[in-house]
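User: Design a sequence. Structure:
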């Protein structure tokens, strides 16, 4: 993988989220892309595994209908020959309520011949759920 693969994917993904333009994203996804975003699927239906280009494009379209992206910051990034790992902070807005959302996501991606073949993302879901509920979650103390 070259840096260009990561940067092209990043631009295409963010363009698909903000402008609902998925053509460029489709062109850099492998036909058999393996995609999973881990988190509470019962609360956020767009989370979970997807397989294949069409399924990934569908879930990206679903996400773009729920939130709009305002800013993202790469807190940490590691680039290998054909893989990357990054810790990101996204500033989003709910399209239904207008509520601002801030979320940290760890993303692990693999590329082959300039195409994304695998993506795993882990969301700081506790913070996300609190923001979605609009209140803090108070857990009992465990002795």
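Assistant: Done.
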């Amino acid at each position: 993988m070259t840096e260009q693969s990561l940067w092209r994917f990043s631009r295409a993904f963010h363009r698909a989220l903000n402008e609902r333009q998925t053509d460029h994203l489709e062109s850099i996804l492998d036909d058999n892309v393996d995609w999973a975003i881990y988190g509470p699927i019962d609360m956020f239906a767009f989370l979970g595994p997807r397989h294949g280009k069409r399924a990934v494009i569908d879930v990206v379209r679903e996400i773009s209908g729920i939130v709009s992206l305002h800013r993202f910051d790469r807190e940490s990034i590691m680039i290998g020959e054909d893989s990357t790992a990054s810790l990101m902070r996204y500033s989003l807005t709910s399209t239904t309520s207008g509520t601002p959302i801030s979320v940290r996501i760890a993303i692990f991606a693999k590329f082959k011949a300039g195409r994304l073949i695998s993506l795993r993302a882990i969301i700081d879901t506790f913070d996300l759920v609190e923001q979605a509920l609009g209140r803090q979650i108070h857990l009992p103390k465990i002795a």
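The longest strand covers residues 67-79. The radius of gyration is 16 Å.
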